[in-house]
Amino acid sequence: MPDYTLTTSEHLTRRHAAETRFRWGGRLAVLLSLGFLVFMFFSISARGIGAFGQTQIQLEIHLDEAVLDPTGQRDPQQLARANFKPVINQALFKLFPKVQTRREQRTLYQLLSSGAVFDLAEMVEQNPDLIGSTQRVWLPASAEVDLFMKGKVDVSLEEELRRLKNNEIAWINHLKVQRQIQKKFNTAFFTKGDSREPELSGILGAMIGSFLSLLVCFSIAFPVGVLTAVYLEEFARKTRFTDLIEININNLAAVPSIVFGLLGLSIFLGVFHMPRSTPLVGGLVLALMTLPTIIIAARASLRSVPNTIREAALGLGASKVQTIFHHVVPLAMPGMLTGTILGMAGALGETAPLLMIGMVAFIVDVPQGITDVATSLPVQIFLWADSPEKGFVERTSAAIMVLLTFLVLMNLFAVFLRRKLEKQW
Amino acid sequence: MNIKTIATSLLTLSMVACSPSTEQDSSKTAAAPAKPAGRDHIKIVGSSTVYPFSTVVAENFGRTSNFKTPVVESTGSGGGLKLFCAGLGERHPDITNASRRIKPSEVENCAENGVAEIVEVKIGYDGIVLANSRKNPQLEISLHDLFLALAKNVPDGSQGLIANPYKTWADVNPDLPAFKIEVMGPPPTSGTRDAFVELAMEGGCKSIDWIKAMKKTDKPAYKALCHTIREDGAFVEAGENDNLIVQKLNANPDAFGIFGFSFLDQNLDTVQGSLIDGVAPDFDRIADGGYPVSRSLFFYVKKANIGQTPGIQEYVQEFISDKASGSDGYLTDRGLIPMQDAEHADWANKINRLETLKLD
């Protein structure tokens, strides 16, 4: 009689070993992908976190009436054209009276951002009574100074290789001692549009552009997608034709997004003459792109509603339309919304189709409506990543952080909907 | 909704998606009637090399004038001119940037679509640099050696051609360092690549007498020889993003990169430009024409749109003013190489008279 116990135990050890190997392999795979995620997250955060702070310089500015409003009328139109540069320069000069040569003075004035005048102008516009008084104001420093304050300038290099020269560093250090230079929270980053000066650039324009595009995308893709799904799932008889449509929809879901951009270019811009670079066209293109995803998700969630519900409703005398819109669609809604939100999250991160319809552009003004020219978040990242100025490096990462935050929020919302509203049958 | 309409719309959708050629048809139909422009902002398209300068001027213009900030799209020189020439009216751009001069074929195309009067504006120069990391010594190379290092086919010594056999810089010329030839540059779609091929590669190519003679006898063969960059891995197409090339140079000190002067100017702390024919790519030597690989930058204005779209003339004025593109202007901080004062004044004059472009 063969010794079963022995052979089994040998087999058993081998099987156990295989199982352990598999388990460890799985753990390793999870660890690896988590590691990539953590690495990406930390490298982006480490680079981008700096952009949320912005160096500012405090100046004691005498808002000289003779310079700003020689007529003394406080006429808003006149004030809008006033030149604030001299009063700022004068304040800087008062801090460093020893700077005498014109060339050196020019470098001194460049410590401040070229946008400082606009901040000051805005302040005076809101309160014209300030003219004639002396104010202590915090104004944004130039990008070079900002990089230095964030420790991103290698001071050990020869002077001519640095964009920030020795005398500028000496001035900054003097300001540091006087506590007149400080890193503050960068509100401009969230309240302004794009700029070619890193210290003046903000992400609000791109955020609104993205929001408007998604709004257009949602208001078109959701109703069309849901109606298509309901029709195909509940009304249409299964024929060759519906099969063909089904295959087409599945294929469309796999079409690369740039193709939808080309489609948008030829249809919306070429045939319908819609305005280029606008969230309206962007949203339409994104809607075409997310439509298949939404239809597929909506059909799946309609299919998961048990037939007993339909039969019960029909049995109680409801018409087909009543059955569907009073019972089936509401029950399938959480699944449909989840699919839609995930589709929209994908659309939020899309750049390629927007490239074709001109949304990849330098746009300073924050868009006011869907027919204004606009960019979107991923496009802004693309544009900043391509800018020669060093100050944009951290802004690129910061913009990625903002985009990721929105993506995570949207995905969390989808998970929340699924958890809270979905019924188990 | 009936099933047929859904099906047909989906089918047309997929059909149109596969044939982007419809774009051209639409541009033809749009060319005929010239509607008055109703846009409130200037629309600019074109070269990615001019983009950094154009955007700075646009922003300053928007901030300091009562006009809206112009919208600038980076489409490449060729793409920009195509859009620009597609027709008159508000749907088409007012201005296109170009890192090369407009071609006669493009002028013809413009005229066919009703864009007959174009004002040419030259804004300055751009140098194309060959750069490496500061961790290695600066390279000094002649155009001739640069051609030999990067061409697909090179002379074999007796008026014949062989596939490029050079593996290291020292193989090309014993005076050069002995590390592997590895150059990162822009892809063929880029204007920087065009200019590099025309100025540097052809420049070095011409220095070989029998090839120069070939230009008269067999121009296509001459062009093919001088304009073709090797494809065996020594030249790496690194995409349009010049920042990426700079970062890669830091990671790999033995490699070289090809990009525009403005990126060298912003990254002098980590990379250095190579001397070409003994001339360093610095501000002054590009401006006086001593540096061999430099080109002119332009933009083109649609004359018919002046007065239709508000602010075009004022934008052009801002661009050619001394405070922007003059020898001390703010664009020089961004790496633009300005024209000499006399040339600058000359162009400013021409533009003030809105002289229309005539190619000779």
Describe this protein's structure:
The complex is a heterodimer of chains A (425) and B (360). With 425 residues, chain A is mainly α. Helices cover 65% and strands 6% of the residues of chain A. Chain A has a three-stranded antiparallel β-sheet with strand order 2-1-3. Chain B is an alpha/beta fold. Chain B has two domains: 37-126 and 296-352, D-Maltodextrin-Binding Protein, domain 2 (3-Layer(aba) Sandwich), CATH 3.40.190; 127-295, Periplasmic binding protein-like II (D-Maltodextrin-Binding Protein, domain 2), CATH 3.40.190.10. In chain B, the strands form three sheets. In chain B, strands 1, 2, 3, 4, 8, 9, 10, 11 and 13 form a nine-stranded mixed β-sheet that branches. Chain B has a two-stranded parallel ribbon with strand order 5-12. The termini of chain B are far apart. The chains are: A mainly alpha (425), B alpha/beta (360). Chains A and B meet through helix 10, helix 11, helix 12 and strand 4 of A and helix 1, helix 2, helix 3, strand 2 and helix 12 of B. Strand 4 of chain A pairs antiparallel with strand 2 of chain B, so a sheet runs across the interface.
What keywords describe this structure?
A: 425 residues, mainly alpha, MetI-like fold, 3-stranded antiparallel β-sheet, 65% helix, extended, B: 360 residues, alpha/beta, D-Maltodextrin-Binding Protein, domain 2, 9-stranded mixed β-sheet, two-stranded parallel ribbon, 16 helices, globular, disordered N terminus
How is this fold's topology laid out?
The complex is a heterodimer of chains A (425) and B (360).
Chain A: H1 4-48, E1 53-62, H2 65-68, H3 76-80, H4 85-95, H5 102-109, H6 116-126, E2 134-140, H7 143-149, H8 166-177, E3 181-185, H9 188-191, H10 204-235, H11 240-253, H12 257-271, H13 279-303, H14 307-315, H15 320-348, H16 352-356, E4 361-362, H17 377-385, H18 391-421
Antiparallel strand pairs in A: 1-2, 1-3
Chain B: H1 3-18, H2 22-31, E1 43-46, H3 51-64, E2 71-73, H4 77-84, E3 95-98, H5 104-112, E4 118-133, E5 140-141, H6 143-150, E6 153-155, E7 161-163, H7 169-172, E8 183-185, H8 191-206, H9 209-217, H10 219-227, E9 235-237, H11 242-251, E10 256-260, H12 261-266, E11 271-273, E12 275-276, H13 283-287, E13 294-302, H14 312-320, H15 322-325, H16 341-352
